[in-house]
Amino acid sequence: MLSVRHVLDLDEFSLADIELVLDTASSMLEVLRRPIRRVPALRGKTMVNLFYEASTRTRVSFELAAKSLSADVVNVSASGSSVEKGESIGDTVKTLEALGADTIVIRHSASGAPYLAAEHTNATVINAGDGWHAHPTQALLDLYTLRQRFGRLAGLRVVIVGDILHSRVARSNIWGLSRVGASVTICAPHTLLPVGIGDGHCGGLPRLEVTSDLDRAIVDADAVMALRMQSERQASGMVPSLREYIRRYQITNDRLERARSNALVMHPGPMNEGVEIAPDVAHGARSVIQDQVTNGVAIRMALLYLLHGDANGTI
Ligand code: CP
């Protein structure tokens, strides 16, 4: 089973944990391809989706994952709940546990919110994205998608480009990709790079290659992961001109000519097509963006099963 009780970020996952999740996700994908996409593994368990921030992919895929494992699912959003009356995160998760939650999946705009939640409940907490900090289940589905296409992860060259400063997806992917032996290059304008990210002093992140020159970074890349320009997290304009940003950092078919001939294009979504990624690339032959979404259900099934299921039971 996993060495962790909660899923807060991938820095806490060993290589064996990651491999177990990816292998289990393959079995879950097989379940999802059956005519009846439901197994009884988590019958009697309850998962609560506690989302303080907008989501389509993550919230829906957790709900589908839990339902495919026959768990009960309750969706709670900040609006319409007692959070609007000022209830704290701690009191909210204690209340949900008292109501029978075995797992609480939490998304919050504040970095660290899932860690606070985990301190206040005996339920299992899964981080569905906290502020700029972490999005571990997204990184796991990204790893799965890469392994599905390449048959391996070690030795792959992955370029992550875009608004790194505000990206929880980038941080979790840096942990995950480094753990499995892939090499990671981070590419962004200087104003969208966290201070110290290149010298191994940025939140303890592993040392990685950092550049602001996408045309050089993309040479011989196995995969290019474009990140959304996060206008909702930018206190002020951090690029002088969007047109200039698009010219230097948009993933285009011309730029992809420099990558390996079988290079993949990834994006966690939601996309700003025409900003960080050209529409013909987003929907082109190299794009695995739809696979990422589909694999998200299998990864979340795997996590729920490994955290709560009977490891000896069949699925
Ligand atoms: N990738 C991702 O977290 O998407 P959502 O915001 O739609 O959940």
Write the layout of secondary structure elements.
Elements: H1 15-32, E1 46-51, H2 57-68, E2 72-77, H3 89-98, E3 103-108, H4 113-119, E4 124-130, H5 136-150, E5 157-161, H6 168-179, E6 183-187, E7 209-211, H7 214-217, E8 223-226, H8 242-249, H9 253-256, E9 264-266, H10 279-282, H11 289-308
Parallel strand pairs: 1-2, 1-3, 3-4, 5-6, 5-8, 6-7, 8-9
Helix pairs in contact: 1-5, 1-11, 2-11, 5-6, 5-11
Bound molecules: phosphoric acid mono(formamide)ester.
Phosphoric acid mono(formamide)ester (CP) is lined by residues 55-58, 129, 135, 138, 268-270.
Q: Which cofactors or ions or other ligands sit in this model? A: phosphoric acid mono(formamide)ester
Can you give the mean pLDDT?
94
Please report which band the strand proportion falls in: under 5%, 5-15%, 15-25%, 25-35%, 35-45% or over 45%.
5-15%
What is the CATH T-level topology of the largest domain?
Answer: Rossmann fold
Separation of the first and last Cα atoms: 15 Å
Q: Which strand order spans the largest sheet, edge to edge or round the barrel? A: 7-6-5-8-9
Q: Give the CA-based shape.
A: globular
Q: How many H/I helical runs?
A: 11
For the sheet with most strands, the description reads: 5 strands, parallel
User: How much helix is in the residues?
Assistant: 25-40%
Count all strands and give the number. Answer: 9
Rounded to an integer in angstroms, the radius of gyration calculated over CA atoms is 19 Å
Output the CATH class name of the largest domain.
Alpha Beta
SSE class: alpha/beta
CATH architecture annotation name of the largest domain: 3-Layer(aba) Sandwich
